[in-house]
Amino acid sequence: LRLIADFGLIGLPNAGKSSLLNEITNARAKVANYPFTTLEPNLGVFEGKCLADIPGLIEGASGGKGLGIAFLKHIEKVEVLLHCISCETGNPLKDYQTVRNELSKFKLELTQKPEIIILTKTDLVDPGCVMKLIKELKKGNKKVIPVSIYNYQSLEELKKVIK
């Protein structure tokens, strides 16, 4: 009863989590170009697997900043983390560490959950930059999938992993 979803889309605000959920499932989560558009988890189903779009985490969430603790409690209720990192931010590697730090500060067990890193908004940056990010993130022995909601092939790759 504790699980709300098989997969949880996590990341900083504006990382493309809701847009990704809408593209993969029949969900119709609100999408806008400002932080905290999502304030409650949105659910969608793909091939019998439930995906939860968890509201964005910020630095200090584990200490109660904003609605961080409520958002982190939702992450406890998913089996696999789909960690969304926007390629268009100034420092995607720092963004990754920010979320990982908040997970570990809240409950160390959250960092032990299976995790797949999804580089979002790959259409907005140079392909060479995307390849460099993939190489850096793979150093942690994580699976990294570059995705753009405007690239059918990248969405299909992600769908294969979810299946």
Description:
By secondary structure, the chain is an alpha/beta fold. The protein is 33% helix and 21% strand. Strands 2-3-1-4-5-6 form a 6-stranded mixed sheet, with helices on both faces. Strand 2 and strand 3 form a beta hairpin. The longest helix is centred in the middle third of the chain and has 15 residues, at 92-106. It starts with a strand and ends with a helix.
The count of DSSP E runs of length 2 or more, i.e. the number of strands, is: 6
Our estimate of the beta-strand percent is: 15-25%
First CA to last CA: what distance?
A: 22 Å
| Helix-strand makeup class | alpha/beta
Low-confidence stretches at least 5 residues in length (pLDDT < 50)?
none
What is the rounded Rg?
A: 14 Å
What is the residue-averaged pLDDT? Answer: 88
Q: Which word captures the global form? A: globular
Written as H for each helix and E for each strand, in order along the chain, the element string is EHEEHEHEHEH
Strand order across the biggest sheet? Answer: 2-3-1-4-5-6
Estimated helix fraction: 25-40%
Number of helices: 5
| Biggest sheet details | 6 strands, mixed
Q: What descriptive keywords fit this protein?
A:
single chain, 163 residues, alpha/beta, six-stranded mixed beta sheet, 33% helix
Give a short overview.
The chain is an alpha/beta fold and 163 residues long. The protein contains five helices and six strands, in the order βαββαβαβαβα.
